[in-house]
Sequence to fold (404 residues):
Amino acid sequence: MNPKVAEERALKCIRCGFCLEDCPTYVLTGLEADSPRGRIYLIREAIAQGQWRDGAREHLDRCLGCRACETACPSGVEYGSLLEFARQRLVSDEPRTRDTIARLTLGILTKPSLFGPIAKFANALGLRRPPSWAQRALFGAIGVPRLPRPEKARGARSARAEGGSGDQVLLLEGCVMGSLFQRTTEATIRLLERHGASVRLIQRRCCGALDWHQGFEDDARAMARALMEVCQGDAPILTHSAGCGSAMKEYAALFAEEPEYAEKARKFASRVRDVVEWIHERGYRPPEQPLEKRVAYHAACHLAHAQGIRSEPIELLQQVPGVRLVPLKEAERCCGSAGIYNLLEPQMARQLLARKWSFVEESGADVVATGNPGCLSWIREAAEERGSAVRVVHTVEVLLGEVE
Fold:
């Protein structure tokens, strides 16, 4: 996005303040510069003056990119695109050690062939929790979180790469999902087949969302081009990762200044659906056996705020036999994971996680359902650290009726 477009979008902010109480960082710090309108002011100022004010980067770094402000905004400010513009400019104008760490981390996370074995190896060696003195000495300064525990797939993945006899859909396995949540992917395939889909699994591919949201747009575009090449045709492209879905639906914006890809990106984006969104459109088929669980729903930011998919998951969960849906306070407020935010801003991320978990306990839920791998791993972290029996699972597992 060029500066002129960014400035036009920033000028739509009328500084009404409706976003303030919906911004997780503003709620914690109370600082105007840690609010959406404060950050928009910093972006406008940088465009006008051609340079960033001292301290501006710290406040932009602290933003989760949750886009809750977009839901609250009466003026329709496209804050997410402004944040991406700012981060891309900052990475280009003022590269620093933090950006190098982020790029190296993403170079591992977005490659399942690397990240999967690393996570399994770390888990086997007990490097997950609690952190050893060596981990603290090596990584404490940059706040590297403990690696999530990889799930174990129930069945043979190769046998389920394509199945069913109905309408074909493409399911993006994704990078983090592919490395850590194989059981969730298996459950998603079974749920789709129950709803008449013939599933073609797109394995070991990254959509570019993590890089894009961090400001590495060139890397994101390279991944997006590769994904579009393997997803040709007209079949729906489904994802069980809210972050992936929001990025893929916005590919037209990513390629807005590349005419040769703009139309291809627009058509690709029109085919993208979150799995829950697709099932809701098609008509849900509940499991026959009741699932006697109290379920709290945590709304992943990039599902609720970026994609506007808010009521559909709740409506589907209410149809699962035996499930009692219990209210979760601040269900649409970020848990603190936010891509690699819990790596780069561990203190703020921990505060948000503690707040989220306190409301989970208050709800009395047996199960927390959510629709994004970052939320899954981060909220599971809280459950495991506290020795809680609360299960944290993807929404599809509840809809399938397969929660242990």
